[in-house]
Amino acid sequence: MNDLVDEFDAYRAKMNDRILKDNNKVLKRIFNLDTNSFAEGALDKKTKELLGLVASLVLRCDDCVKYHLESSYKSGFSKEQVVEALSIGTLVGGTIVIPHLRRAYEYWDAIEDKFGQNE
Amino acid sequence: MNDLVDEFDAYRAKMNDRILKDNNKVLKRIFNLDTNSFAEGALDKKTKELLGLVASLVLRCDDCVKYHLESSYKSGFSKEQVVEALSIGTLVGGTIVIPHLRRAYEYWDAIEDKFGQNE
Amino acid sequence: MNDLVDEFDAYRAKMNDRILKDNNKVLKRIFNLDTNSFAEGALDKKTKELLGLVASLVLRCDDCVKYHLESSYKSGFSKEQVVEALSIGTLVGGTIVIPHLRRAYEYWDAIEDKFGQNE
Amino acid sequence: MNDLVDEFDAYRAKMNDRILKDNNKVLKRIFNLDTNSFAEGALDKKTKELLGLVASLVLRCDDCVKYHLESSYKSGFSKEQVVEALSIGTLVGGTIVIPHLRRAYEYWDAIEDKFGQNE
Amino acid sequence: MNDLVDEFDAYRAKMNDRILKDNNKVLKRIFNLDTNSFAEGALDKKTKELLGLVASLVLRCDDCVKYHLESSYKSGFSKEQVVEALSIGTLVGGTIVIPHLRRAYEYWDAIEDKFGQNE
Amino acid sequence: MNDLVDEFDAYRAKMNDRILKDNNKVLKRIFNLDTNSFAEGALDKKTKELLGLVASLVLRCDDCVKYHLESSYKSGFSKEQVVEALSIGTLVGGTIVIPHLRRAYEYWDAIEDKFGQNE
Question: What's the pLDDT at C1?
């Protein structure tokens, strides 16, 4: 099941490289901003991860959800906390979000299989 | 071609179980409401299935479309009726909906392959 | 409160005329298709009105909701039936739909104020 | 400028009452769930407010943004913190979000005019 | 009718100033990028205006449509050309786009009233 | 890597046939309009391709992006031009668009692998 995580990370890294080496200035700056906006600030980095996760879920972007699940995990959130965030996204975004919730659960399981459980 | 239906149903059932046994109260209630809102009421259950189908199509959620195609089929709608509903969704939602319409047609064919045609 | 209905209908009629007299072939045909797709067919016209209403609500288009509330009313749906359709849209589309639901209720009240209640 | 806040709150309260007294079970439960999902849990209530705010912004729902700006204010977030959350929403949701960001700024100003600044 | 244009421009300018003087780095850079991405490049500036217009229409953002109508006008596009672009947006985005199309027509008329017709 | 292009084209052609032979009048006319709206007119066909591409990207429809990448390629756009169009879509639509941008880059590479580079 680990493959889910490795596959996603590998494709993401390969294509990001592909895009960035292309040297389109606007795209490079958007990628840059992405890093800046999630950095420590008036809000702590950890809280920001969760904001990214919920935004991704309500916009129903599976790849974005995967990315933010991984960084939420690495920030130390427990599964229970992540699920509460996902439940808010599901309520706000509606039952149309449920198929993405299923894949989010599957991906979180893959993360825990690979790296162990956060307490 | 039957696999399309079995695969979808199996993954959906497995992950729904996974989510529900997790015991997040908000998610459980949303799943519950889903059942309630499509029950017989001032509108009959059959009409409601079609409302769910069109909502799913305009929101471009393939899995939701599949689910409601199956329950529309089981409610006894003919293909012609289902296609009329899909055509409204395509007009309201625009040509951006067409790729989802293709997959809806493919899935309906898989349903008929498996269970026979509704008259 | 009647003004809500009259105002909306007047603006809609004025601007539709404006667009149609402009003679862009694609736009004219889209307007035409709109009429065709909601006509009696394998599905009855009345059911189709409700499909249009729910599609409009989940896509969060206030003007489209108003239009379909009016035609749902004229098709003879009772308030209870319309509200059941709206409740499906709110569940599928999520709490983000609630502000549009508020305006839908207000508009339905304006319709009943003007034309009386459907039984 | 205070009117912005009072007007919004009054309309929201009036129409919510209107909807709830209508006694549609699905809608009542959705309203209920809304309260439950933002309650203290594995995540604190304060963090959840911010999740609601960002979800509302990326889904471009002005009324939802207003509501969550008010509750974020009442939870004690400083303007700088709220703006960081809004900036994440704007990056994730794109420049299409900017008109909603303008109205969010205007509304936050109205809140501070009325209740004073959070430190 | 000119007021439509003046009102929109004034509110937009006032709130953009408000946002920019707030000095949130991410927001300032997004505003900056907005200018850069529509500058002359491998594609000419004029074509890019139209891309912005159609993107705004299919995403159903009235304020964004207004802004890009104005800059499309200033780039020298004729009404017929602008309407062709809008018709593509309406087809791709579906009839749900029509209320926004109405307001786009109204705004274009206001622009022509104020500045005269492009030939 | 060519497979990406062939696979997509084959599935698209097969299912379009499937839909069209079904003879639903509304769907057939929508397919027809799709051809008409992208024909030479007040705007040249080439510009229209790019409008279709950007609309597809901001609406985050992978299949639509693939289709318009192919026709943009066949219209003679260079990669640099296409990427500028994609960068506008990414800015307008936000970072949520990035996963679709990755797949767009991959598909463009597959097109160039198959047909050679546009100069």
Answer: 47
Angle among Cα E46, E51, E53 to the nearest 5 degrees reads: 95
Distance CA B54, CA B85 (A): 6
- Partners of B36 on chain D (C-beta within 8 Å) are 25-26, 29
For residue A109, count other CB atoms closer than 10 A to its CB. Answer: 15
Instruction: Tell me, yes or no, if A32 comes closer than 8 A to chain D by beta carbon.
Output: no
CA distances from A74 to A22, A116, F115 (A): 30, 11, 43
Asked if D10 and D65 touch (Cβ cutoff 8 Å), the reply is: no
Q: What is the CATH number of the domain that holds A77?
A: 1.20.1290.10
Does residue C115 sit at the E interface (CB-CB below 8 Å)?
no
**Which positions ≥6 away from D13 have C-beta within 8 Å?**
none
Residues of chain C contacting residue B88, judged by C-beta atoms under 8 Å apart: 37-38, 48, 51-52, 55
Nearest CA in chain F to D94: F94
What ipTM goes with this model? 0.96
Mean of pLDDT over chain E = 96
Instruction: List the end-to-end C-alpha distance of chain F, in Å, as a whole number.
Output: 21
Closest of F45, F110, F58 to residue F88, by C-alpha = F58
- Span C70-94, pLDDT tens digits: 999 999 999 999 999 999 999 999 9
Whether A28 shows a pLDDT value over 70: the answer reads yes
CB contact under 8 A, B102 and F11: yes
- Cα separations in angstroms, C24 against E62, F36, F45: 21, 11, 16
State which residues form the domain around C72: 2-115
Q: What is the number of structural domains in chain A? A: 1
Portion of chain D with pLDDT greater than 70, in percent: 98
pLDDT category of residue E2 using cuts at 50, 70 and 90: low
Question: In this complex, do B15 and A102 lie within 8 Å of one another by their Cβ atoms?
Answer: yes
CA distance F10 to chain A (A): 25
CB contact residues (below 8 A), chain A span 39-98, against chain C: 58, 90-97
E66 Cβ partners below 8 Å, 6+ apart?
E8, E104, E107
Tokens coding C54: 């729910």
The label of the residue with tokens 């749906």 reads: C77
Please tell me the predicted confidence (pLDDT) of residue D119. Answer: 76
Burial C59-84 (b: 16+ CB within 10 A, else e): bbbbbbbbbbbbbbbebebebebbbb
